[in-house]
Amino acid sequence: MTEAKTVRLEIDGKPVQADSRDNLIEAARRIGVAIPYFCYHPRLSIAGQCRLCLVETSDAPGRLVPGCQVRAKEGLKVTTTSPAVKENQRGVMEFHLINHPVDCAICDQSGECKLQDYYMEYDHQPSRIRTYKLNKPKREIFGPVVVYDAERCIMCTRCVRFMDEVAQESQLGVVQRGSWSLIATFPDQPLDSKYSGNTVDICPVGALLNRDFRFQSRVWFVNKSPAICTGCSNGCNVYVESRGDRAYRLLPRRNEEVNQVWMCDEGRVTYHATNEGRVEWARAGKGEAAENVGPKLAVDRVVDRVRPLMGKGGIAIYLSAQCTNEEAAAAFLLGREIGATRYLTGGKPPGDSDDFLIRADKNPNTKGVRLVAEAFGAKLEEVKAGDVIAEKALLAFRTDGLTPLALERVELFIALEQNEDLATAHADVVLPCASVYEQDGTLVNWYGRLQRTWPSITGSRADAAGVAATRTDAGVASTGRSDAAPGWLWAERILAGLGYTHAIRTAQMAFALLAERASELSGLTLDRIPDEGVVLASQLPAEWPKRAPRPAAKPETRGPQTTPPGAKVGDEASGGSR
Amino acid sequence: MTELHDDPLALEADLPSSLMTVNLGPSHPAMHGTVRLVITLDGETIVDAVPEIGFLHRGFTKSSESSTWHQVLPYTDRLNYVSPILNNVGYIMGVEKLIGIECTERAKYLRVLGGEISRICDHLTCISAIGLELGAFTVFLYGVEARELLWDRISEWTGARVTTSWTRIGGVATDLPPGFVERLRESMPRVMELTHEIDVLLSRNRIFYDRTRGIGVLSGEEALDWGFTGPCLRACGVNYDVRKAHPYAVYDRMDFEVPLGERGDTYDRYILRIREIEQSARIIEQCLEQIPPGPIIIDDWRYALPPKKDVFGSIEGVMAHFKLIMEGIQVPAGEVYVYSEGANGELGFHIVSNGTGKPYTIQVRAPGFPILSALPRLIKGHAVADIIPIFDSINMIGGEVEQ
Fold first, then answer.
1. What is the ipTM, given to two decimal places?
2. B216 pairs with which residues across the strands?
3. Which of A329, A397, B82, B170 fits A513 for a cystine, CB–CB 3.0-4.6 Å?
4. For residues A196 and A189, what is the distance between their CA atoms, to the nearest angstrom?
5. Do B316 and A119 touch (CB under 8 A)?
6. Smallest CA–CA separation between A133 and chain B, in Å?
7. Does the domain at residues B51-401 carry the CATH identifier 1.10.645.10?
8. Are the beta carbons of A119 and B320 separated by less than 8 Å?
9. Between vectors from CA A364 to CA A361 and to CA A365, what angle results, nearest 5°?
10. Is the dihedral of CA A345, A351, A352, A357 positive or negative?
11. A173: helix, coil or strand?
12. How do residues A39-91 score in pLDDT, each as one tens digit?
């Protein structure tokens, strides 16, 4: 690629400073001029397929050139508002709509469809077509994730280019010609790439749809909030879309240094664990004797059982790598106060990986849990398959990786867990844990990027985790649909029950427990973590998978801090990121 | 034993008295629109009065901010709920001015026609209430019969008697139904006959005349200072009518007069409304004669909903419909003040758009607000019994005063 230079050009009479690698669409975007497009995508090759971005330039007076293909050039004069450009946009929209079915009412894309947006902006005229529309395949199952509606397709070929260039598995192609063109898979070869869901995201219309989200919700009903995917240790930035106490889908959120604008299909369905199979109520007792006792009594039960053991040894704390840093920090604090003698860790078993976005470690915070352990000066031991935990009492912060075999000799097992599993069935007390998508906190990805995640689910379960939790603390019965609360809040309740006054009331306070102990994080607060995260230099790996996105040349990296903890960290003084 | 009344001096002596503060309203049936008056009395004489609004607070401005441009329309119905079409027209004129479009020719006539029918309803309500509350129940029944006739016509036309929400950006929602013109032409003479009956019953009635003449007097200058507009201003002899001074829609093609009062008292405010009903009737007749055929709404799918045939039958129609309903009509950023002649005076809308499908803010210049502010000035020095006719004659409407 050519060297980047700054070039000056003029768009609609306004001067623009652009990068010489910018095309006219990107150059115009810099000054807020919108050139419409369907087929162009900043991360894919140029196709010039949709003809909607045609503009006039001083290099080719009297004819239109595609804004996606023409590069910014010194002294170029671009017009995006001339009658010829406007007439082209109107005409192109009319062509795109000739065979488009009257589907808005039943189409999942309604409300985030570029055809709708551009029609109102550039066409807004009645149909002039007096013949029948072409009939094409309506519901081609392309693969496990994607279903295709050929009638809605405008043949922008974004999906084809994505599969060729990003997923690098050429599973899609264009077949037939003219109005009969459609996107198709090869015979007997489904669209089974692990990145196939991205074709749905980049489809500007409702032609490619996600089978998991299809007909589940209208897009204008869901709340979109930023979070971090919990599917593996890559830590893809995502949006969680939720309504009431249910999550409906995950969409990738742009972070060039983590996931660019993509995510894998496995990550997309991680929200199901937030909706289904939850531990909803705090309960005490095993098997037949199990009883939902409410958060207050459950915490009392924990306190009653733990107090006699305190200081006598034989208490272990288990930390799943699914915990947020805040949960882990509160767990270590609790462990220190009750005199835990051993800290164990584990998590979901490793899975498949590739050289792009999928990591073998299927836990989002393995690095983070280790970082917290270091900060608290605790030795963390991994529970391997076949290990039997020898301690009398075990307090588990999320039970992923704990098997009945490992628990065989444990006499008192207290589990904080989000989903019912084999371990919760063995627990003496089960405290329902809020999902990562329901709480505020931080996670550290595989290469050491500390990223914030936000609570997404606005409905009653989140109320139970937040507002109602304080009410239940005061002894009032929970009014929410669940007792679920973040792990750090359960730790705080147990600590309070034992008579300690740490007062961890917010995720910010829980993060501070960690930040004041880890030298790399000193001076950082939860609210001051940049949206794109902070790279912790000490955690950076020596080897990188070939295509994995990595921090830019001058990363937002934090090294060990020279300023003492608590000192004001300014732009120059920090020696770190800010 | 000497009784008190035996003492001639005691009978002549001043009674020991002090000022008394009493509430009138907010739930008094004569305090229309639940307004509360805190009045200070010296015996029977009013020394001071404080009108207190807020019992009918509707949050008009705030509600508008979270509604699309068309969703605001039902809120305007409830401003002056006796003449909703006038509010619909006033508001939609503002949005059209922001966008820079004009409604169709037929829609302009329809808006004037609907507006003048509404004005008659409003005036009839006002004068019937004055009659009712001064003991002339017959007048009320006559007035309401006439008003019902007109509301029947309006409900045939718009689908609702008072909650019309009938205008649309670029036009109106419904055209005249079949046979409407004939039925309106049948109704109008009866309405005018009943208005005449009221006129005959009240205008020269000794009791009514004495209760209203010279009561609640305000000079033209003072009325202007208070910010009066509409019938209450014209009763003081000031010739200002938005329809004449700044004609909108098709008022410049209408031949009508602006009746004026002389003394600015309760009687003038009453009689002026009777005269205005007569003028409105003239305008209605002219509208019916002049109204051209044609579309009732502009044919631009950026602003007007596509016809149902296109919504169900073409992708263009369904997309336009979807975007207009879900995201609202995109009104360019800007700020306007529009004013029209409401039933009680100049009805102004100050509308700010930030270029989205919802208004940034809307404020209403309710004609009743400055007039209500002057109520203490009007009733001071009068007897308690005079409050009601004065308050009736200014025709305060809670819905618009307390937005």
1. 0.85
2. none
3. A329
4. 13
5. yes
6. 10
7. yes
8. yes
9. 100
10. negative
11. strand
12. 999 999 999 999 999 999 999 998 999 999 999 999 999 999 999 999 999 99
**Tokens 């040349």 belong to residue:** A553
The C-alpha atoms of residue B376 and residue B358 are separated, in whole angstroms, by: 39
A interface test, pick of B300, B312, B319, B331 with most A CB neighbours within 10 Å: B319
Q: Does A87 touch chain B (CB under 8 A)?
A: no
Instruction: Give the one of B302, B310, B326 whose C-beta lies nearest to A124's C-beta.
Output: B302
Q: For chain B, give every residue range classified as CATH 1.10.645.10.
A: 51-401
As given in the structure block, the two tokens for residue A112 are 């985030």
Instruction: Give the pLDDT confidence of A91-106 residue by residue, as tens digits.
Output: 999 999 999 999 999 9
Summarised one tens digit per residue, pLDDT across range A174-194 is 999 999 999 999 999 999 999
The rounded distance, in Å, linking the Cα atoms of A173 and A285 is 58
Q: How far is A226 from chain B (nearest CA, A)?
A: 23
CB contact under 8 A, B323 and A97: no
Burial class (CB in 10 A: 0-12, 13-18, 19+), B7: exposed
Instruction: Give the pLDDT band (50/70/90) at residue A577.
Output: very low
Taking the model in full, what pTM does it have? 0.85
d(CA B320, CA A106): 16
H helices of A228-293, where?
A: 265-268, 272-275
Phi, psi of A561 (to 5 degrees): -80, 140
Kindly provide the b/e burial profile for residues A325-363, where b requires at least 16 CB atoms within 10 angstroms of the residue's own CB: bbbbbbbbbbbebbebebbbbbbbeeeebbebbbbebbb
Question: Does A119 contact B313 at a Cβ distance shorter than 8 Å?
Answer: no
CB of A103 less than 8 A from some CB of B: yes
- A117 in contact with B, Cβ within 8 Å: yes
Alpha-carbon gap: A514 to the closest alpha carbon of chain B (Å): 42
Token pair recorded at residue B286: 């002219």
Query: Where do the H-state alpha helices sit in A385-459?
Result: 422-425
Instruction: Report the 3 state secondary structure along A444-460.
Output: ECCCCEEEEECCCCCCH
User: In the β-sheet with A246-252, what is the strand arrangement from edge to edge?
Assistant: A223-228, A237-243, A246-252
pLDDT tier at A554 (50, 70, 90 boundaries)? Answer: low
Reported residue count of chain B is 403
Here the tokens at position A228 are 């971090």
**The two structure tokens encoding residue A380:** 């963390």
- Contact predicate A331/A492, CB 8 Å: no
Residues of chain B above pLDDT 70, percent: 98
3-class secondary-structure state, position A175? strand
Rounded CA-CA distance A465/A454 in Å is 13
Q: What pLDDT, on a 0 to 100 scale, did the predictor assign at position B208?
A: 94
Q: Is the pLDDT of residue A437 over 70?
A: yes
Contact at 8 Å (CB) between B304 and B293?
A: no
